[in-house]
Amino acid sequence: MDELVKKLAGLGLPGILFVIATATSGGNVAAVVALLSSLGGPLGLLGGLGLLGLVGILAEYITGFGTENVLKLVYTERSKTESVRFLLKEINELPITDELKAKLQQHLNSVVVTDTPEGDTPKTIEIVEEEVTT
């Protein structure tokens, strides 16, 4: 059993997902294959296995970069198109630690949008009074 755990730990998140899929199917190989095939969409079983690999790569990348940094980048990008008040409320409702919530809220409050689309620069208008000649 220890050897199995070591090998699954080497697989990371995809290994855990595979164990969950196997456990929920009662160990039935056909059910596991069907699950992987449905995950793979039009690519079938190979697509499902590829998806597990992709999930592993993404999980490793996010872990290496840091969950906090990923969340900050996501909320910074969303603040360009969504209300900051709405995003702050959403952060408050996330199932994360209070410390991380405070960091995200502070980061979102400090984000200043400096990009202005072209053409939105103020125009100078000069008003000239003409003398009426009679």
Automatic annotation (TrEMBL):
Keywords for this protein: Membrane, Transmembrane, Transmembrane helix
Highest taxon above the source species: Bacteria
Transmembrane segments: 12-37, 43-62
Record-given protein name: Uncharacterized protein
